Amino acid sequence: MAADFPQPGQVIDYHYLWKWQDQRGETEGRKRRPSCVVVVAVDRKGLHHLFIAPITTKEPNSDRQAVPVPETEARRAKLDPDLRLWVIVDEVNYDILEQSYTLEDRTPRGSFSPVFVEHLARLIRTIHAERSLRIANRN
């Protein structure tokens, strides 16, 4: 495990569980995909609550909310800068680091800049406030 994990903006390879899979009773993501740790909250017991957003190469449908990943951010995160990438911001996985069975490799591949991550977090908070954030609980 990386000594600085978890930090907002870190991009990890994660078995992301889509909400539609969660609703069908699936408990495991079908494949490891780059995902961004967007929010880290530490509770009174010292547990790290993570909100993790998926990164995809598939252009999102018009009914989804996503942010294109600029080439500079892709390079920072050690993603392929030649691919078109999006961070999905209307859906996240919720996981608790100390109780997680899905966070196997806790070494980030890279990180997005603080400005880009704050933009993602602000959008996710807004979507959550509108009660339209899809959350798959991984605990």
Structural description of this entry:
- The protein is of the alpha+beta class and 139 residues long.
- The protein has one domain.
- It has three helices and eight strands.
- Strands 1, 2, 3, 4, 5, 6, 7 and 8 form an eight-stranded mixed sheet that branches.
- A hairpin with a 5-residue loop joins strand 2 and strand 3 (48-56).
- The longest helix is centred in the last third of the chain and has 16 residues, at 114-129.
- The mean pLDDT is 94.
- It comes from Gluconobacter japonicus.
Order of helices and strands: EHEEEHEEEHE
State the helical fraction: 10-25%
- The unreliable regions are none
Query: What is Rg?
Result: 14 Å
- Give the end-to-end Cα distance, rounded to a whole number of Å: 20 Å
- Tell the overall outline: globular
Alpha plus pi helix count: 3
Largest sheet composition:
8 strands, mixed
Q: What is the typical, i.e. mean, pLDDT? A: 94
Class computed from helices, strands and strand pairing: alpha+beta
How many domains? The number is 1
**Percentage of residues in strands:** 25-35%
Protein name: Growth inhibitor PemK
Organism: Gluconobacter japonicus
